[in-house]
Design a protein that fits this description.
The complex is a heterodimer of chains A (about 220) and B (about 270).
Chain A: E1 7-12, E2 15-20, H1 26-39, E3 49-54, H2 62-73, E4 78-84, H3 90-100, E5 102-106, E6 114-117, E7 120-124, E8 132-135, E9 139-145, E10 148-151, E11 161-166, E12 170-173, E13 176-179, E14 191-197, E15 203-207, H4 211-214
Parallel strand pairs in A: 2-3, 3-4, 5-7, 6-8, 7-9, 8-10, 9-11, 10-12
Antiparallel strand pairs in A: 1-2, 11-14, 12-13, 14-15
Chain B: E1 3-8, H1 16-29, E2 34-38, H2 46-50, H3 60-64, H4 70-73, E3 75-76, E4 84-87, H5 100-113, E5 116-120, H6 127-134, E6 138-143, H7 147-162, E7 170-176, H8 178-182, H9 189-196, E8 199-205, H10 208-215, H11 227-239, H12 250-253, H13 255-268
Parallel strand pairs in B: 1-5, 1-6, 2-4, 2-5, 6-7, 7-8
Antiparallel strand pairs in B: 3-4
Classes of the chains: A alpha/beta (about 220), B alpha/beta (about 270).
Chain lengths: ~220, ~270
């Protein structure tokens, strides 16, 4: 009987890498994986070995990934660290794209209106009290922020809120919340400011210029002199 | 073919009905054929402000349900020669008695016979509001220089901007008390217009005569000398497309003299 090589194991200094053939059926693969796992590493007392799985051009659903993880995890000293695929589902790709996109909106967000975008938001206009803008990423407002802004609303602590005039009723970043002072003093202009989460998990408002150092990742421009 | 303008505000008590009655009167004074439509079913009072309460036979709900013809329900304002009419709201039912489609049809029909149809909208953003805006081509948002009124105006502008059949709304700031604005105790006109960022159609100062005249059933716009009346007449002319500068507020115009007069006025009591 010809023994196919659907699962190739390679040892590296970081642990074990499993290359899974992307041409065979999933059942075949699973069968062979089980065989090989059971054959090798008989010794349960050896230290933990991290396993990386590379599936090539095969797309595995979350369910299948869990199945494989379970299978490998059945050997006590193996632990799956990472599963990498060359392919993603359209859905996932769209989400990636949306999350990394900047959506530009030129409008006034009035009381009672809510704008939500998956990625970054560039709003050309004001957010009036009672209005709300939400973004999975950063929020940039060319205008007055007088309502509520929620950046990183799916749990991104690195997200920032930038506004030409920062006089919000509330700022939210990820799970942090900060409300405005009960009164804005007349002599502070609150122009060109940004808000971010600092080391002690508090939202702070600061000059726009600090962003460059605090969140260098905001700069996406590559090249130039 | 006439134009239907809805007069709305979101918040109650800012002067929608007063504005409707006075703009209607002012437009009629400018020889336009005007029909005022009260959509505040169940809480009608445009008829009271116009002094036409005792002439109502049929109402809006009767027309919508086909119990009478439109012209039977229209109440004529005797002070004008066939220029100003009122389609009163029903007092016995509520807002759900008519649908936006019925109002739209009704307004379309009125547009054939009138130059302007002014629709007085009830407070709120529910059924009554939806009825009122259904047939409108334009909108006037009335607000007062109070934060709460401005907030509601903002909300209503947001809703109006979603109505594709209505042109961008215009703003009327009502009941301005110039001495309070001057002392910084009240929002000023600039502040409100930048905040709401829509075109300003006019400002109306707060005047005791407005209340007196509406109690008497005779809109202030009939008075040629009152400053609130002049403000409403100016708004009417702006609706017709004339460009008229804003009336300066009392503080800039009358200055010291009026304040001295006021001072003695208070003292003499």
């Amino acid at each position: 009987m010809k023994k196919s090589q659907n699962v190739v194991m390679k040892g590296t200094k970081d642990g074990l890498t499993l290359h899974l053939n992307d041409r065979c059926s999933y059942e075949e693969l699973l069968e062979e994986l089980q065989e090989k796992i059971l054959l090798d590493h008989q010794d349960d007392d050896s230290p933990l070995i991290s396993v990386k799985i590379q599936t090539g051009n095969r797309y595995l659903t979350d369910q299948q990934i869990n199945q494989i993880k379970e299978l490998i995890g059945s050997k006590k000293n193996l632990i799956v660290e990472d599963v990498s695929m060359n392919v993603v589902s359209i859905e996932e790709a769209m989400r990636w794209k949306q999350e990394s996109e900047i959506i530009t909106i030129a409008s006034i967000v009035r009381s009672g209106q809510v704008i939500e975008v998956p990625g970054d938001l560039l709003l050309v206009g004001d957010v009036n009290p009672g209005g709300m803008v939400m973004a999975g990423g950063n929020i940039f407002i060319m205008g007055s922020l007088k309502g509520i802004a929620h950046a990183g609303c799916y749990g991104n602590d690195e997200a920032v809120i930038v506004a030409s005039k920062m006089v919000p009723t509330q700022l939210r970043i990820s799970n942090c919340l900060n409300r405005a002072p009960d009164e804005y003093s007349e002599d502070e202009s609150h122009e060109m400011e940004c808000a971010y989460i600092n080391e002690s998990n508090q939202i702070v408002v600061d000059r726009l210029q600090v962003l460059k150092h605090l969140r260098p990742n905001i700069t996406r421009f590559k090249g130039g002199q | 073919m006439g134009e239907a303008i809805v007069i709305t505000s979101g918040k109650g008590g800012v002067g929608k009905t007063t504005t409707s009655a006075n703009l209607g009167t002012a437009l009629a004074l400018l020889d336009k054929k005007v029909c005022l439509v009260d959509t505040d079913i169940g809480l009608r009072n445009l008829d009271v402000v116009l002094g036409l309460e005792n002439r109502i036979i049929y109402d809006l709900v009767d027309v919508a349900e086909g119990r009478c013809k439109i012209h039977q329900a229209l109440v004529k304002d005797k002070r004008f020669n066939d220029l100003l009419f009122l389609l009163p709201a029903a007092q016995t039912s509520d807002k759900s008695a008519v649908s936006p489609e019925q109002i739209k049809k009704l307004v379309e029909e009125l547009k054939q016979d009138f130059d302007y149809i002014l629709i007085d909208c009830p407070a709120g953003i529910e059924q009554g509001y939806r009825n009122a805006v259904a047939g409108a081509d334009k909108a006037i948002v009335v607000t007062t220089p109070e934060k709460s009124a401005v907030r509601d105006a903002d909300r209503i502008i947001g809703l109006l901007e979603k109505e594709s059949h209505i042109e961008p709304p215009k703003l009327v700031i009502n009941r301005i008390r110039s001495h309070m604005v001057e002392n910084g105790e009240m929002l000023d006109v600039d502040e409100i217009t930048t905040h709401l960022s829509i075109d300003l159609l006019g400002i109306v100062v707060d005047d005791d005569e407005v209340i007196k005249s509406s109690n008497a059933g005779e809109p202030i716009a009939h008075d040629p000398n009152n400053r609130a009346s002049i403000a409403f007449r100016n708004i009417a002319r702006r609706i017709l497309g004339e460009s008229i500068p804003l009336q300066p507020l009392e503080t800039e115009k009358e200055g010291v003299f009026s304040r001295i007069k006021k001072f003695f006025g208070i003292r003499s009591k």
